[in-house]
Write a structure and sequence with these properties.
With 190 residues, the protein is of the alpha+beta class. The protein has one domain. The chain contains two helices and ten strands. Strands 1, 2, 3, 4, 7 and 8 form a six-stranded antiparallel sheet that branches. Strand 2 and strand 3 form a beta hairpin. About 24% of the residues have low confidence.
């Protein structure tokens, strides 16, 4: 009888631990796996132009929302992303401009393995000198994260917007470690 209870208890524990194992495996902000495995942006569920995440480096493409059950009514989100960049100081980032339902905003995906907390400033520049800026605290450690500006009503074509994120040491000197932009290089700019 004790063996039966132990078996049943072990089975219940295994079943209950599956959702926990999925949560520990890492965030999937885009809601689906890109199938490429590894890397900062794959961990975030990014680097595939077929969803709301950033386009592959060197490309400027529109992306649509995921087609998962229960999410069919979600609005379409287009993104224009710059390349994935990394600095020798241990900072990786990719910055994007996103557009959905008449709103535009900026987002920077990052990972900080520098061993110290950093400051990030993300700015979205639009037509007629419109700028939205936000400061984000970037904790020490290699967990991926994101910095995002508030959504603002769009005031022009999506191509008239750009975003830049700067990652710096938060001290008196403010040494800049990485600057990441949303503008992809034009084809042939190698």
């Amino acid at each position: 009888m004790n063996l039966r209870l132990i078996g049943i208890g072990a089975g219940v524990l295994i079943i209950l631990s599956l959702p926990l194992a999925g949560a520990i495996a890492g965030p999937d902000f885009a809601g689906q796996d890109d199938g490429k495995g590894g890397g900062l942006f794959s961990t975030l569920g990014l680097s595939d132009s077929s969803r709301t995440a950033p386009a592959s480096p060197g490309h400027s493409e529109a992306a649509s929302g995921p087609e998962r059950p229960g999410q069919a009514g979600q609005p379409r989100t287009d993104s224009r992303c710059g390349p994935e960049l990394s600095s020798p100081h241990g900072v990786e980032a990719q910055t994007c401009v996103l557009v959905s339902e008449g709103h535009t905003w900026g987002r920077s995906y990052y990972r900080n393995t520098s061993g110290r907390a950093l400051d990030a400033v993300l700015a979205v520049m639009g037509p007629a000198g419109r700028t939205v800026q936000i400061r984000c605290a970037v904790g020490a450690g290699d967990e991926p994260g994101l910095c995002e500006t508030p959504k603002e009503a769009s005031a022009g074509e999506p191509d008239s917007y750009s975003a830049v994120a700067e990652f710096a040491v938060p001290d008196d000197e403010g040494a800049l470690l990485l600057r990441s932009g949303s503008n992809s290089p034009a084809p042939g700019d190698g």
